[in-house]
Each structure stands twice: as C-alpha cells, then as structure tokens.
Amino acid sequence: MGNPRSSVVSNWARNQRCVPDAVHQPASTNEVARIVRQAHETGQRVKVIGAGHSFTATAMTDGVMLRLDNMTQILSVDREAGQVHVQAGATLHDFCRELHNYGLALPNLGDIDVQSIAGAISTATHGTGSGLGNLATNVVAMTLVNGKGEIVELNEGDPRISMAAVGVGALGVVCEVVLQCVPSFRLHAYETIEYLDDLLDDIPSFAESADHAEFFWMPGARRCQVKRNQRTTEDIQRPGKVAYFRDKYVAENLAFGTVCRVGRRWPSLAPRIAKLVSSSVSERDLIDDSFRVFASPRLVRFVEMEYGIPLECLPEAVQRVREVTKHLSFPSLFPIEVRVSAADDIALSTGFGRLNGWVAVHQYVGAPYESYFQQVADIMDSYGGRPHWGKMHYLNAAQLCERYPRWGEFQELRVALDPDGTFRNEYVDRVLGVPNAK
Length: 438
Description:
49% of the residues are buried. The chain has helices at residues 29-41, 92-101, 117-122, 161-164, 196-201, 203-207, 241-265, 270-280, 290-294, 314-325, 370-381, 397-400, 407-417, 426-432, and strands at residues 9-10, 17-18, 22-24, 46-49, 64-67, 74-78, 83-87, 104-105, 139-145, 151-154, 173-180, 182-183, 186-195, 212-217, 223-232, 284-289, 302-310, 336-341, 356-364, 386-387. The strands form 5 sheets. The protein has an 8-stranded antiparallel β-sheet. It folds into 3 domains: 9-67, Uridine Diphospho-n-acetylenolpyruvylglucosamine Reductase, domain 2, CATH 3.30.43.10; 74-183, Uridine Diphospho-n-acetylenolpyruvylglucosamine Reductase, domain 3 (2-Layer Sandwich), CATH 3.30.465; 187-387, 3-Layer(aba) Sandwich (Vanillyl-alcohol Oxidase, Chain A, domain 3), CATH 3.40.462. The chain has 14 helices and 20 strands. It is an alpha+beta fold.
C-alpha cells in the first residue's frame, strides 16, 4: 500500500526532503521484488530509505520509496562459523542486542547505531581501529532485488560481493545479508583529555594505542577528548543508570544542544563555547559489552562531512583544517572527529587499498556550513580524499572515478543489475554518473 503523494519524507538531519509518489513497507524479499517489478513495468524510479541517517540525497525520490522497517528478522545463525543471516532493514542497535543473546557481536561499530544494516553497508559506514574495516567488510553473502524486480542471490565466494557490498543504492534493494560476526566481547573504555599537538606529533602511535582509538577536538580549543577502547576479559564495570543519564543525555545532548542554540544565535560567543565544551568533558574509565561502548545516543541534530585520506597525511590535514576554523565567518559549533580504519578490497569502499585516517566536520542544524565544508573539502581533495558515501560532499562522478581503481567494474555490474536505471535519482547521477540512461 502506498501513502498519498502529499506525504513529505525527510532524513534525520532534515537537510534532505522529497515527496514520493508512493511509500511501501514490504515484509519480505518476494514482496520487494513484486513492488520493484511493478515500478519497472510502469517506468517509475525506486529508492529505499532506512533510518534516514545519511546526510545526502541518496534515498530521495519522487517515484516509489521503500521502507524496510518490517524486514528486521534474524533468519538463521551459524554459531560455529559466526555467520548470521538477517533481513537488511534491521537497525544496528537492535541487531547487536539480538546478536549478544547468541553470544556474538559485530567486530566494530561507529559511534551511532540507529542506521539500518542495508544503509550502513551500502555507504561503507565505519568505526575506528587500524586493524578493522568498515561494516561492509563483514558481508559474506547478499540477496538483492535488481532493477527489473528479479531476486539475485550473491552467495559466499561470489566475486560480485566485493562490488555489491558498497552499492550506494545504485545496484538494487539490499534485502538480506549474511554477516561475519565474532564472539561477544567486552571493551575497556578509557577516555582522557590530551593536547591536540601531542596527538598529531605521532599519529601512527596514536592509531595503534588501542584496538579502537579516536579523538574529538572542539575548534578553538587546544585539548581533545580522546577515546581508547581495548578488548578485555575483565568483569563489567559500567556506570549506574543515573550517571549514564547525566553523562549521555544531560551533558552530551541536553546541555550541548543548549550551547549550540546559543552559538547559532550569537556566533561571537563561539570561542567561549569551545572552552566551555572542552572544559566540561571529563575522563572516564569503564568496562562493558562492546555494543554498549561503541555507540552513544545522538539527539542534537547536525549536518556532517567526512573524508578518508592516507593515514600519513592526517597530521598535516588536521593542522590545515585547524587554520580554516580560525577564520570562518560563522564558527563551527561542533567538535571535529578523527578516526582510523583498515584497508579492504571492496570496489567503492572508501578503504579500498589503503589504511585511512578520517576527518569529520559537523555543524549544528540551521547554522551556516557551506563555506566551512567547502574549504575542508578542498583540503581533503588535495590528498585524494574519499568522502563517506553517507555524508555531504561536493564531488561528481568525473572526480570520484579517479579515486577508485575498480570503478569500471562497479559500473559494469550496475548496468547488469539495473539496465534501465530503476534506482537512479539526481544524487546517484551526480556521484556515479549515468552509464545506462534511457
């Protein structure tokens, strides 16, 4: 059943909106295939939206929109192999908690877990860890519905998986995946306050200082919040419910949101805000199940751009971004996040063939960001940076194709799976080109 055309659909950040002709919520792969087949026969375009946590227009359409909210079930679990077959509409948050009941976990997660599995793998969403790839590297097998409404099984060992795992919504509807998991594990989370210059002096050592290492730096401040998460077999030592609520909801969301609103209204106060935010962060030391440590609630809305660049370029790039933030006409009200991730061999993965250092810049919703993001993008482009597929950037297919050695192979698969452009929209045309327009 479709919703009336007047229904407006927006993403989480509310910077992307569209009015689909119809919105469907299928409950099975067969139902997805039927809807796509009907759309193809009538010449309609199809896009899929998950949690809407992409900052791009990748899921926007004036045609048929699919929501996979009813496709969230774990279909089978092979505990011995550590492989889990799941419908791709499940959120990472719910999936990880179900996995834990089976004694399993994903080897890595980002600091937000509200995304659907389909959306997270299709955009190469990542966490941090020099020995750990993005979430798409865990894909063992996939079930897609192609542009003609046909079900396509990509079984373990199929070479097409290394192209389809990160499909940016252009190859088909990801309906089911088999993910390689690991035994459940705990993390010892140690959060410290350190000087930015000290971290940049030896980025390789910082990247290797823990299984998962990252830092957050507020523009204008000299010190950073550093997070190091190390795998451990020690007993759980988690904060009480009151302390967790105080830290994660009151401090990181309610209070921070208030400060951002003040900064948006009176940008001249931004330097004071930077000092206030930096000084309010405290050191923490806890041990908990991995999925509870990786992700935190994010209630303050923002827009974001993130680039992966060769790790050896990271110190210079951060220093250049630091200079940019000193001269913005409207200051940044959000911290800058720095992470690392391992190399892989997936065609459109941002980690293809290289260890990446990541720089993410954010801005509070409603505050100007264009000049800031464009200047940072220019810096990252000078290092051959690859933008996160789910976050804002200004590149087009002619520029991006030079940064992905297997670009041509991906386009061949795209033509094979979607010869009539069923999954095209303006964003896909811009970033991936139009090899098969009709």
